[in-house]
User: Which sequence fits this backbone?
């Protein structure tokens, strides 16, 4: 046991491990808070769809040889997030079909572009690391960490300030509109925050596994708690704990970071299901 | 002057009219029931009154000093709410949100919410989860939320749909109490005309896409439309 502990202490002397931990925890916190709203709004798949859009945008950025791909990826993702959340209600193509279409389409186009305009010899490796995040979280620079931390804090502040309104719009949009809340504005805010979180989370778990980061903590928390506030807080804590464990395990056992974090989330979900079951049986 | 007057409204979506030539008004303290079959445009009318959609023609005039967002709206329960993790208190408090831009609830908001919960007999359920309540209790929670949003006008959309008979009569008595004791104006959408005739002061009957009758309950019972409906429905009271 002390051996493992010593090893962890040793690893934490490396800045890249500390960076990974900070960024990981912040992103996990942000994504889980919004995850509760998304799951309840029946938008669980939006993370999936948007992350594939982001993947497509990353490919385009790679093809165009942009030095900072975030500058292209973020606005594109925000645009599609707004498109998806706004047309959810009255669109000719329904929300879930729209998400599926975008998701598959962006994935295919992204891969196609990367294939046609090969920029490196290791195409499969590039695609794999964009999709599964492989090691990019361990190669963060100091400025990446600052940017990520600043955006995460901004997301957290917006979430706390608009918490009551986000609740109202999620629970009953018609009532919220009737009392004079501008539901469109809040849906827009939610869409923008989600897009930012997804772009951030791509560094952490890659675009394929972002949905897990958004959905699992919310669903786990819902097994245990019944209030919106308690579910949100529990989801945040679970997500942070799972991510921290996932990063530690992946460093110690040399497993892929993203997949390990998601595995930790799955274990937490199983535990929550079981304890929820026992609690209600009692 | 009437609290709310609708003149010659034509309602619909995307430029397609669903129902036209609706004119009616509610005065303070009225209890108006809007009745009609499914598809007659009742829900469209509600959505227009609370401002979710704009009328295609005609206008809605409100009394001076009465804002549109002072309507306490009780919507039909949605699927989303069936497994929504939210406590009774959280839901009732969210009724207070319309009135200010500030991000958090004030002491007055909390007192108002607690007062409304007490008045409707659900204060003991304050920390319970909404999804675990019975249908009748859920409707009371949503009614308490609506009361947090208004002091003057309640707008109820099929409030007793899916409730058992005991819960239905309890709910109607609550509305009657709010109407008589607290002088809250009530507009209720319903297809249950016999109960409407028991409580309402005024009736607005919409046929298929056109208005059939608007006036006081007494006149309605004497009218052709009312008589036809009563004999069809097996008599009111």
Assistant:
């Amino acid at each position: 046991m002390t051996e493992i502990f010593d090893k962890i202490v040793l690893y934490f002397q490396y800045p890249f491990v500390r960076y990974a931990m900070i960024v990981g925890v912040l992103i996990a916190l942000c994504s889980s808070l919004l995850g509760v709203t998304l799951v309840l709004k029946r938008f669980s798949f939006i993370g999936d769809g948007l992350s594939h859009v982001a993947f497509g945008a990353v490919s385009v950025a790679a093809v165009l040889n942009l030095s900072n791909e975030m500058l292209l990826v973020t606005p594109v993702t925000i645009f599609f997030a707004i498109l998806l959340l706004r047309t959810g209600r009255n669109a000719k193509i329904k929300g879930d079909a729209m998400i599926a279409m975008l998701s598959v389409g962006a994935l295919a186009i992204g891969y196609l572009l990367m294939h046609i305009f090969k920029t490196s010899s290791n195409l499969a490796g590039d695609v794999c690391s964009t999709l599964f995040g492989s090691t990019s979280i361990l190669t963060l620079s100091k400025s990446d960490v600052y940017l990520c931390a600043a955006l995460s804090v901004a997301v957290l502040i917006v979430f706390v300030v608009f918490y009551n309104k986000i609740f109202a719009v999620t629970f009953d949009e018609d009532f919220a509109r009737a009392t004079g809340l501008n539901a469109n504005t809040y849906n827009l805010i939610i869409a923008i925050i989600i897009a930012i979180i997804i772009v951030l989370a791509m560094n952490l778990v890659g675009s394929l596994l972002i949905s897990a980061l958004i959905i699992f903590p919310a669903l786990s928390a819902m097994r245990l708690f019944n209030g919106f506030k308690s579910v949100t807080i529990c989801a945040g804590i679970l997500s942070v704990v799972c991510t921290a464990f996932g990063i530690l395990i992946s460093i110690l056992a040399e497993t892929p970071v993203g997949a390990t974090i998601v595995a930790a989330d799955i274990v937490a979900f199983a535990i929550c299901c079981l304890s929820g079951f026992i609690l209600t049986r009692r | 002057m009437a609290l709310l007057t609708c003149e010659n409204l034509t309602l619909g979506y995307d430029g397609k009219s669903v129902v036209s030539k609706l004119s009616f008004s509610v005065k303070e303290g009225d209890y108006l029931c809007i009745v009609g079959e499914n598809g007659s445009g009742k829900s469209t009318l509600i959505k227009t009154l609370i401002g979710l959609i704009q009328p295609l023609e005609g206008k809605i005039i409100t009394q001076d000093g009465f804002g549109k967002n002072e309507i306490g709206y009780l919507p039909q329960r949605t699927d989303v709410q069936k497994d929504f993790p939210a406590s009774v208190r959280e839901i009732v408090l969210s009724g207070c949100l319309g009135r200010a831009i500030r991000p958090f609830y004030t002491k007055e908001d909390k007192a108002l919410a607690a007062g409304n919960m007490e008045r409707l007999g659900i204060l003991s359920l304050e920390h319970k989860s909404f999804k675990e309540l019975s249908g009748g209790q859920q409707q009371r929670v949503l009614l308490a939320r609506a009361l947090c949003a208004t002091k003057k006008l309640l707008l109820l959309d099929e409030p007793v749909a899916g409730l058992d008979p005991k819960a239905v009569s309890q709910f109607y008595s609550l509305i009657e109490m709010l109407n008589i004791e607290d002088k809250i104006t009530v507009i209720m959408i319903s297809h249950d005309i016999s109960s409407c005739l028991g409580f309402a002061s005024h009736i607005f009957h919409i046929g298929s896409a056109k208005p059939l009758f608007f006036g006081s309950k007494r006149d309605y019972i004497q009218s052709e439309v009312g008589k036809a409906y009563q004999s069809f429905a097996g008599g009111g009271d």
